[in-house]
Structure formats: structure tokens, C-alpha cells
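User: Reviewer 2 asked us to show a designed sequence for the structure in our supplementary figure. I'm pasting the C-alpha cells here. Could you produce the per-position amino acids so we can include them in the response letter?
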């Protein structure tokens, strides 16, 4: 239920400011109110929704400071996960290149673009054994996913993140985790600036 609601918000089916009531959503999804309510409360805790006592929930408006703050945190957490991953095997590097190649060829499909970008990040960090860290990263990714979907729909173009990805992959091929980490931070910073300018 949580994932279904989150996807509706991320896709823009429930745009910023939209009212979300548990009874109405349960009826639309053909389920009882309880799992819907639990999912809505979780989304409120994660900052995706605002809870209005007695009036239900509303989708939180996009806010440049939220994206800047979350992006800065994700940059550090993903950098740490990359550092903890150690040397990236050649097979995983090839997988990253393949994902990037597909991402670069996308035209007019922002949802697929974002899914592939997130897949690229997950694949990059597969070697990290710290499950708590990976869980935190996964939760925080809800914020940029929502902003990226709105941005790509509005701007009508796919991000140029593949260029940044290629630089990170090159550093990893040389087993230079320090350079890869710096390039990773730069990748996040550029993305934050791009989204911030749009908002």
C-alpha cells in the first residue's frame, strides 16, 4: 500500500497540495482503511505528506531547501556506502555502464529515466554490507525521486547525469575510491543545483 501511494505521488497523480483521505483512497484501491491509514502516516513521517488533524492529509509542496538538505545528506551517505563497498568488481562496472547506456538513450519517458538512475545508484552500492545505511539511503531517495519526476515532466528532457556517472565509473575502474567519492559528491551537487534552479 505504501509503495502504491508513494508511486502515485511521485508520478504526479497526486500533485503537491492535493488532499488525500484514507476513506477515499481505500475505496479507490479496493482495500480497508487500516493499511491505507498506516501508509499515509508513514508518508507523513517521511515528509511526503502533511497531516492535517481531522482533515486528512495533503501532498507536501515542492521546496528547494528540502531538496538541498536531502541531497546533501544523500551525497554523504551514498559516498560512505561506496567507500564501505571496497573495490567494485568488473562485472558490476559493466552493469553500471549498461544501465548508463540505456539511460542515455531515453527520450520522453521521465519515469523510466528516474527508475534507471535509481537502479544505477543501487547497483553502485551493492557491495556495501551495512544494511542500516542502505535502508536509510532507500528511505531518503523518496525526496529526490519526487522532485526529479516533477522536473523531468515539466522540463521535458532527461537529465545529463550519465556524464557524471561515466566519470565515477572511470575512477572506479582505476580503483580510486577517493576520486570516485569526490565525483559522486559533485554529481549530487550538480543535480541539487539543477533542481533548485527549476523550483
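Assistant: Here is a per-position design you can include in the supplement:
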Amino acid at each position: 500500500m505504501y509503495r502504491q501511494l508513494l508511486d502515485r505521488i511521485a508520478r504526479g497523480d497526486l500533485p503537491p497540495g492535493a488532499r488525500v483521505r484514507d476513506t477515499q483512497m481505500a475505496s479507490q484501491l479496493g482495500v480497508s482503511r487500516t493499511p491505507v491509514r498506516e501508509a499515509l502516516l508513514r508518508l507523513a513521517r517521511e515528509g511526503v505528506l502533511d497531516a492535517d488533524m481531522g482533515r486528512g492529509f495533503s501532498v507536501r509542496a515542492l521546496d528547494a531547501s528540502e531538496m538541498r538538505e536531502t541531497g546533501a545528506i544523500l551525497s554523504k551517505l551514498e559516498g560512505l556506502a561506496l567507500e564501505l563497498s571496497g573495490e567494485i568488481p568488473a562485472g558490476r562496472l559493466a552493469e553500471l555502464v549498461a544501465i548508463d547506456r540505456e539511460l542515455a538513450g531515453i527520450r520522453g519517458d521521465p519515469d523510466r529515466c528516474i527508475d534507471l538512475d535509481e537502479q544505477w545508484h543501487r547497483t553502485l552500492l551493492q557491495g556495501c554490507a551495512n544494511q542500516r545505511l542502505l535502508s536509510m539511503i532507500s528511505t531518503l531517495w523518496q525526496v529526490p525521486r519526487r522532485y526529479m519526476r516533477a522536473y523531468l515532466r515539466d522540463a521535458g528532457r532527461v537529465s545529463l547525469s550519465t556524464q557524471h556517472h561515466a566519470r565515477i565509473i572511470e575512477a572506479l575502474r582505476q580503483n580510486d575510491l577517493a576520486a570516485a567519492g569526490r565525483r559522486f559528491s559533485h554529481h549530487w551537487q550538480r543535480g541539487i543545483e539543477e533542481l533548485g534552479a527549476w523550483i
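For the response letter, you might also mention the following. The mean pLDDT is 88. The two ends are 29 Å apart (CA to CA).
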